[in-house]
Amino acid sequence: MNKTVIEVQVRAVLPTSGGCAVFIGNNEKVFIIYVDQTVGSAITMFMRQITKERPLTHDLMGHLMTALGAKVDRVIINDLKNATYYARVIIRV
Question: Where are the chain's structural domains?
Answer without folding.
Answer: 8-50, 54-93
